[in-house]
Amino acid sequence: RVIVCSEFMKSEVNRSFNCPFDKVDVIFNGVDAKKFEFEWDEMERARCRAQFALPDEKIVMYVGRFVREKGIHVLLNAASVILSNEPKTKFVIVGGGNRENLEKFVRWYGLQDSVTFTGFMANRSLHQIYRIADVAVFPSLYEPFGIVALEGMAAGAAVVSSDAGGLKEVVLHDKTGTLAYAVNDESLAWAVLQVLRDPARAERLKAAARERLKTDFDWAHLALQTKAVYERVWSEFLQSYWADNTL
Fold first, then answer.
1. CB of 178 closer than 8 Å to CB of 155
2. If 0-12 CB within 10 Å is exposed, 13-18 middle and 19+ buried, where does residue 239 land?
3. DSSP string, 184-244
4. In this predicted structure, what is the pLDDT of residue 242?
5. What is the Cα gyration radius of the chain?
6. What distance in Å separates the CA atoms of residue 237 and residue 128, rounded to the nearest whole number?
7. What is the pLDDT at residue 174?
8. pLDDT at position 213, please?
9. For residues 104 and 167, what is the distance between their CA atoms, to the nearest angstrom?
10. What is the pLDDT of residue 223?
11. Parallel, antiparallel or unpaired: strands 135-138 and 24-26
């Protein structure tokens, strides 16, 4: 049997490797939400937030590699539309890699006062960014699953993502987050503005997302699913002609 992380990848292995659908099991990836539940007082939080935005400004964050399939260029294209509607917005771009062309685009578009590139971040420093963000955006063009979206949910950020690949299975539109059409900056701007303009809706989606983490994306639950697949394979093997004269 073959284990994949999303229904999207189930279709991918069928298309690319001609693997029969009935041989493929979908078991989601998970997230350890506890790593985002560290204690910090309001003063420390305000000090962290002040590095990126004024008290009355909203923070839209992106975290990911600076490669085309992650769709960061879609977010930067959408930034001007978002700012024209919500000028008190700051964009925090987290990730490693070559960002020279992205920085050139930001300067050319006149966004340098609204966009901050933090460079690579990990562990608590990254988790703090998640926790101060009003919106966590994942505009991927291609995504087998999207663990970063789970991390955003675990940290308590309102999640906006494209509908590419497995992301639409992780982020349920208008239930646990907001989806935008992939490779569509106008749609992404609309989705971000939906969150910024309706805090009550954002809180409802965030609460639903945290609840879903306890079931569909809990590692203990996913481990049991994985164990069940191995037990099925072993049981079927013992009952097959392959086992004859071998055990």
1. no
2. exposed
3. -HHHHHHHHHHHHH-HHHHHHHHHHHHHHHTTTT-HHHHHHHHHHHHHHHHHHHHTSGGGT
4. 82
5. 21
6. 48
7. 97
8. 96
9. 29
10. 98
11. unpaired
Phi/psi zone of residue 132: left (φ > 0), alpha (ψ -120 to 50 degrees), beta?
alpha
- According to DSSP, the β-strands at 89-94 and 58-63 are parallel
Place of tokens 């460079």: 119
Angle at 150 between CA 148 and CA 154, to 5 degrees: 115
Quick one: tokens of 49? 């937030």
pLDDT digits (tens, 9 = 90+) for 192-247: 999 999 999 999 999 999 999 999 999 999 999 999 999 999 999 998 888 887 76
Contact 214, 15 (CB under 8 A): no
Amino acid, single-letter form, for residue 196:
L
- DSSP-based three-state secondary structure for 166: coil
Degrees to nearest 5, angle at CA 72 with 186 and 81: 30
Structure tokens that stand for 56 in this block: 């009355």
Quote the CA–CA distance of 63 and 197 in Å, as a whole number: 22
User: Which amino acid, residue 6?
Assistant: S
Distance CA 88, CA 112 (A): 14
Report the DSSP beta bridge partners of residue 72: none
Q: Residue 162's closest CA among 143, 176, 147?
A: 143
